[in-house]
Structures are given as C-alpha cells and as structure tokens.
Amino acid sequence: MMEPRLGPEAAALHPGWPALLLWVSALSYSVSSPASPSPSLVSRVRTSYNFGRTFLGLDKCNACIGTSICKKFFKEEIRFDNWLAPHLGLIPDDLPSYPVNYSDDFKTWRPVEISRLVSKHQNEISDRRICASAAAPKTCSIERVLRKTGRFQKWLQAKRLTPDLVQGLPSPLLRCPSQRLLDRVVRRYAEVADAGSIFMDHFTDRDKLRLLYTLAVNAHPILLQIFPGAEGWPLPRYLGSCGRFLVSTSTSPLQEFYGAPADQAADLAYQLLGVLESLRSNDLNYFFYFTHVDVDMFGIFNNGHLFIRDASALGVIDRQEGSQAASRAGENKDIFSCLVSGCQTELPSCDTIPEKQSLVLVCGQVLPPLLQAKFPSPVQEEIDAELARCGEGTRPDPEVLQAASRLKDILRPLRTCDPRFAYRYPDCKYNDKF
After folding, report:
1. Fewer CB atoms < 10 Å away: N or C end of the chain?
2. Could you tell me which residue ranges the FAM69 protein-kinase domain spans (predicted)?
3. Contact call for residues 169 and 155 (beta carbons, < 8 A)
4. Spatial CA neighbour of 58 closest among 48, 44, 71, 67
5. What DSSP string runs through 6-63?
6. Is the pLDDT of residue 115 over 70?
7. What share of the chain is helix, strand, coil (3-state, %, to 5)?
8. Close Cβ partners of 242 (under 8 Å, ≥ 6 residues apart)
C-alpha cells in the first residue's frame, strides 16, 4: 500500500519511507502560527492543504525532504494564496502549471510557475506500471519497487554517470549521450550538496534515485540546470524540482501573442529564429534539436524576451566528443523506460538528425500563425514565401538554413525600438545590434 499521510515531524522519523513527488505540509499559511487564525483563513488553509494533497501528492511521498524546493515550501518562501478564492473553492488539479509567488527574503516577491513534468493522467499510469512491474497490488511503495530494479542497483555501485547507465531511458537528451554531457549533468545537479564534481561519491542513495527518476520522467529540469539562462542559454531560471514537479521563472506562452501587433510578432519570430541558430551553433559545440514542437514550448518573459518554456523534447548531440549511440531496440528497457511513454517507443538514430530539423518544425508549425496577415504587401508575400521554404522538410539542409536566414533579414527592420521590448531597450536606440 502507499504510505500513510505524514506531517513533517513524522516524516523526519521515517526517512526510508517512499515516494517521489513533492512533499509539503502547508501551502499558503503556517497552521502552527501562534496567532489565532480567522475562520476564513482556516478555510483557505484547509482548501490549500487539500489542493496540495491532490496536486502535489502529499499522501504519497516524503522523498523530496531536504531538496532546495522543499525547503522553500517549508519556509513559506513560495506562497500559493493567489491560486485560491473562497467563493470559488478548490481550483482544478489537472492544469499543466499554476502561478505562485516566490521570495528569497520575504520582502520582494515575484511571480513564478509550478509545473507538472507529466500530466495527472500520466502520473496515474506511471504509478500503476511501477506496481505492476513488481507484481504488486494496484497501490504500492513506489520508491521501494524502484530501488529493487537492476538499473538502480547499477547506479548504486557507480562512481560516475556513464552512458550505459542511461541507455533505454526515453528522454531525447539521453538518446546518444557523450561522457562530457553526462559529467555536466552530475557536476551541475543542484539538488545535492557539494555539487561540482563529475563523480557521484557525494550522492546519497536517494539522491541517485531522485536524479534517475527525473531523467526517466522528464529531463526538462536537468536541462535548466546544466544549460542555465544565466550563462546565455535560452531557458528560464531553475528554482527547484522534485519527482514530477518543477518551479521555474514565469513566462507567458507564445500562443498568447498570436494576435500581437506586427512589430511585436516580427520581434518574437526574429528571436525564435535566433534561438534555433544558437542551438545549432554555440561555443560548447553541442547541437540541440527538437523531436517535436508546439506553441506552448516557447514562452515570453515580461521584458519581451523569448525563451524555451519546455525543453522536454530537446535532444543534444555532442559534436566535440561524439556521442555513444543508444542501444539496439529492445535492449536495456526496464520500468524506467516506460514511466511516461510506451515501452516500445523508439527515437531515431542521432546519425539521422539533420541540421534543418528544428527549423522545419518551427517554420512549419509555430511561426505561420504568428506572422500570417500581419504585414503590408509585398512584405507579407516575402515572409510567406520564406516560411514555406524554411518549413519544407524535403529541401536540403542548406536551402532551409538559407531561407531562415533570409526570413530573419526581412523581420529585422520590422521590429521597433520602444519600452515594450525591455530586454533590448534602450540599447536599441544607440546600437543597431539590438
């Protein structure tokens, strides 16, 4: 059976008890406050706590105790009161993300997002698969089952994360990993003390299981840590995650800007093409590619800067060191291969990924609704023509890349320089680079 619901004191006495979701005890207010709360406040606390049990899985887990994000919850540096309204009651628990308020000092608060790494439905399927893999009843101790797997036993003995330990995992990030990439994962993994070493000597057993589980479920939090926005990568700031949930800088999805004015649409499209260019060519010599795209994968900060909002479909090929190809079909498949996808799902060989892949996907599916019928003739016709060439998958790589370059050249002068684009204003007044 799943473990009983615990308060923080009880959980601390049972560190071996399982789970892999985010564990918190109170969301908006401290129920142990010395002041007597008003009836309306008690109602909000109860509603918030009930929501936490449903959304965060409080009835299943305590394995995340000690992570940075869990500490934030306990210290109430992440607050959820803007989720709740007494007259509305409990909000839906099946949305992909929710707005929250985040602070480092209790003085300055900023909006961030708590996001599901997998849907609620996928969570349920994953739990059933884990239990079924051990011939267990419908409910079971998730952590206990996963600890007994052959893959995790190999992780326990490993001093270094090597390609054989991640073969068979479904993430595009790990389709053909190099040792350099895996060393970067370990060295920059933020949820362990003394991060910085390529060796896992400082990882506890639970640290290893937490990292393995995250890589198996959704590698998006790992990508945010190993390629941080602070170093110029087009990703939002990582604020913490555990199991199936992530807290990161808040962005607005690109789809909300499909009705934007022409100059703003041109700016966003120009940025997006620039992001894809940086993914193809960068100082670290990693080639990033999307396996698929949709508009929700891209977001915009309140300063107008466009970022990758969801990197779960982002694959990485190491051009400097080369990549170790994934194992042949059917090999190294286990329960970790099947947590959020069918066990038979196969990704294409890294040798077959063309330079044009991400451009074809974005030009064919994301940019047309953003740029259609926005500009006067003949500019609109020129944009439409280059978009068509860029999104045509049958064209050779050089032709697609050339079409994308011409499209950027068309869009560049259509952008304006004003405070709406704070990420490049007022620099754009004095330097054509912006």
Report:
1. N
2. 212-391
3. no
4. 48
5. --HHHHHT-TT----S---S-SSS-TT-SSPPPHHHHHHHHHHHHHHHHHT-TTT--T
6. yes
7. 40, 10, 45
8. 20, 21, 22, 23, 63, 64, 67, 69, 70, 191, 210
pLDDT digits (tens, 9 = 90+) for 306-349: 999 999 999 999 999 876 654 444 457 889 988 887 676 666 78
pTM (two decimals): 0.82
| CA atoms 250, 256, 258, 263: torsion sign | negative
pLDDT digits (tens, 9 = 90+) for 407-429: 999 999 999 999 999 999 999 98
- Residue 386 to residue 365: CA distance in whole angstroms: 14
Look at residue 73 in the predicted model and tell me its pLDDT: 64
Element containing residue 387 per DSSP (H, E): helix 379-390
CA-wise closest residue to 225 among 191, 274, 272: 191
Please answer whether residues 320 and 326 qualify as being in contact, where contact means their C-beta atoms are separated by less than 8 angstroms.
no
3-state secondary structure of 162: coil
Q: Three-class SS of residue 418?
A: coil
For 412, the 3-state DSSP assignment is helix
One-letter amino acid of 30: S
pLDDT at 55: 52
Question: DSSP secondary-structure letter at 195?
Answer: B
Of the candidates 95, 37, 285, the one whose C-alpha atom is nearest the C-alpha of residue 178 is 285
Mean pLDDT on 28-42: 39
Phi and psi torsions of 388, nearest 5°? -65, -40
Neighbours of 285 (CB within 10 A): 12
Domain ranges of the chain: 57-250, 252-324+339-424
Whether residue 145 has pLDDT greater than 50: yes
CA distances from 408 to 168, 269, 294, 421, 430 (A): 38, 8, 21, 17, 21
Return the structure tokens found at 95. 């949305």
pLDDT per position as a tens digit, 68-106: 676 666 666 666 654 464 444 445 566 777 777 888 777
**Residues whose CB falls within 8 Å of the CB of residue 271, separated by 6 or more in sequence, listed in order:** 305, 306
Dihedral in degrees, nearest 10, Cα atoms 206, 147, 119, 89: -60
